[in-house]
């Protein structure tokens, strides 16, 4: 009986070490979403107060491929990826919608005034309800929605030039088919 009591914790430790060893080289930015290949959640977001852009809802995502970017003024990585979003918009002309996550309107306005505004629409998600429905872990996160309103891609964390080249542009091409 004493051997069994000693063996159980040892087996649990060996199991945990095995799990960690098998996942050590896993890409931390790869977070699978249960929403991939599913319709975008039902939502409606008011515009950010004081911006001359509309908010948006689920119906607005239909009709053309759309990049949906979740951002906040207080998010340092959002600042880093912002020039890449502007370049993506300029180079592809894709519709770019923003979900302003848990942000004060004056801070969102200042962020966009300072860095530029590539967005066609920005919804204010002050209570994070829409972000939760989209399965957002944190900011920034970027989704691609096809013309039918189906989420076909998710990128967790700040976009990089490599991620845009290797992931976003191919996913956009697929969304256009």
From TrEMBL:
Entry keyword annotation includes Signal: no
Domain Thioredoxin: start-end pairs: 34-177
User: PROSITE patterns from the entry?
Assistant: THIOREDOXIN_2 (PS51352)
- UniProt KW keywords: Cytochrome c-type biogenesis, Disulfide bond, Redox-active center
- InterPro entries, per database record: Periplasmic_diS_OxRdtase_DsbE, Redoxin, Thioredoxin-like_sf, Thioredoxin_domain, Thioredoxin_ResA/DsbE_sf
- Gene3D superfamilies noted in UniProt: Glutaredoxin
Q: Name one GO molecular function term.
A: disulfide oxidoreductase activity
Question: Primary place of residence?
Answer: other
Q: What is any one of the record's Gene Ontology cellular component terms?
A: outer membrane-bounded periplasmic space
Q: Where in the cell is it found?
A: Cell envelope
One GO BP annotation of this record? cytochrome complex assembly
Q: Which family does it belong to?
A: Belongs to the thioredoxin family. DsbE subfamily.
Put simply, this protein is called Thioredoxin domain-containing protein
Q: Which organism is it from?
A: Devosia soli
